[in-house]
Amino acid sequence: MRRAAVAIAAGAMAVSLAACGSAEEAGGDNDSTASAAKGDNIKVGLLLPENQTARYEKFDRPLIEEKIKELTNGKATVDYNNAKQDANLQAQQVDTMITNKVDVLILDAVDAKAIKNSVQKAVDQGIKVVAYDRLAEGPISAYTSFDNVAVGKTQGEALLTALGDKAKDGQIVMMNGSVTDPNAAQFKEGAHSALDGKVNVGKEYDTKEWKPENANSNMEAAISAIGKDKIIGVYSANDGMAGGIITALKAAGLSDIPVTGQDAELAAVQRIITGEQYMSVYKPYAPEASAAAEMAVALAQGKSLDSIAKDKVSSGSANDVPSVLVPVTSLTKDNVNDTVIKDGVYTAAEICTGKYKAACDKLGIK
Questions:
Q1: pTM of the model
Q2: Alpha carbons 106 and 28: distance in angstroms, whole number
Q3: Do 130 and 143 contact (CB within 8 A), yes or no?
Q4: Distance (Å, whole) CA 254 – CA 233
Q5: Mean pLDDT throughout 41-69?
Q6: Residues 282, 264: contact at Cβ < 8 Å?
Q7: Taking the alpha carbons of 208, 211, 217, 221 in that order, is the dihedral positive or negative?
Q8: Which of 109, 120, 135, 265 is most buried, by CB atoms within 10 Å?
Q9: If you ran DSSP here, which 8-state letter would residue 56 be given?
Q10: DSSP letter string, 163-225
Q11: Helix (H) / strand (E) containing 94
């Protein structure tokens, strides 16, 4: 499955790089000679934020590591660590990467603002930083993620489709992500752009640390406050939280309530084919991982990012950062074959286990 996912990276990258803008050269001429002298013998630091979401250990880490090895003829080494949703631990991990003298750092921040000083420390030691999946504060040299506002808009539009003519017959609950994650604010922005004026929002939450159990507690509170007979739909910013939300809905005796999600986690895909969850946002991790690896290797070797990063973005502390933004797809029961199965993320056998087999057969998932 992993090899299949890597195999689609080249094709998917062609899509993700088809954007406007021009990136500035990564690094000046003064420091490129020394970096380039390293050739393929580089050391890349990789820091991911948490392991509660299945994607990071199952997809992001192996895809990035394999692409780096491919780009460096197997000569590069990757120092890896996971912060387990602890911003202080991640700051310590950056210090360790500096001590270990990595040439470049790929960083997916737990807390985008809190990591700013650590990014500065790394840059002060000559280590360039690629912000991965989340736009970290500080003097980053490159960034890759998905179009996060488009993600939220896709979710919001899908919920409206699910509600149809009943969109204003009751109230929806909005379960946003963590306030420490800048992506969550963008998802929220996109969702509101689709939903505002078209639905009544009964309760809205920013969910601490994206944890499913926190989403579950929030949903229980929403059901109590709004009344279970008035809830017609739930905007959930990701699949993990959707699982907690659906558990709360079931406990209250509610079914057939459309719930959105994101990340196309296996459990979510299974919930989608049985109708427990309406949709997820499928984000092809291979092109995102490939972009991060390509930019990191180029930066470590003192090369330009012009041929890789065609977009530019700005954070609160960095402007015109060379970036790759990867497009996303709304995943419903109608396109499982054409998304996660076609791209090799999951096999039909992985999805259609036990109680899910009948649903798969009905949908023609194979």
A1: 0.77
A2: 20
A3: yes
A4: 11
A5: 94
A6: yes
A7: positive
A8: 109
A9: I
A10: HGGGTTSSEEEEEE--TT-HHHHHHHHHHHHHHTTTS-EEEEEE-GGG-HHHHHHHHHHHHHH
A11: helix 87-99
Question: Is the pLDDT assigned to residue 54 strictly greater than 50?
Answer: yes
Closest Cα to residue 247, out of 283, 211, 200?
Answer: 211
Is the model's pLDDT at 343 over the cut of 80? Answer: yes
Strand partners, 79: 45
How far apart, in whole angstroms, are the C-alpha atoms of residue 60 and residue 134? Answer: 13
Maximal C-alpha separation, the chain: 67
Closest alpha carbon to 45 in 99, 112, 117: 99
Cα–Cα dist 158/116, whole Å: 35
Is-contact 320 303, C-beta < 8 A? no
For 210-236, the pLDDT digits (tens) are 999 999 999 999 999 999 999 999 999
Sheet hosting strand 142-146, strand order edge to edge? 77-82, 43-48, 104-107, 128-132, 142-146, 321-326, 311-313
Please check whether residue 57 is in contact with residue 278, taking contact to mean a CB–CB distance below 8 angstroms.
no
pLDDT tens, residue by residue, 244-293: 999 999 999 999 999 999 999 999 999 999 999 999 999 999 999 999 99
Could you count the other beta carbons within 10 Å of the beta carbon of residue 284? 27
Taking only the tens place, the pLDDT of each residue in 183-201 is 999 999 999 999 999 999 9
Give helix 61-71 / helix 285-300 axis angle, nearest 10°: 40
Number of Cβ atoms within 10 Å of the Cβ of 366: 12
Residues in the chain, overall count: 366
Q: Helices H, strands E: what count in the chain? A: 15, 12
Distance in angstroms (rounded) separating the CA atoms of residues 172 and 220: 14
SS3 118: helix
- DSSP character at residue 259: B
How far is 337 from 363, CA to CA, in rounded Å? 9
Judged against a pLDDT cut of 60, whether residue 4 lies above it is answered with no
SS3 41: coil
In this structure, the number of other CB atoms found within 10 A of the CB of residue 67 comes to 21
Token digits of residue 167: 């969109």
CA distance 115 to 107: 10
Local structure of residue 24 (DSSP, 8 states)? P
Backbone dihedral angles phi then psi of residue 46, each to the nearest 5 degrees = -130, 115
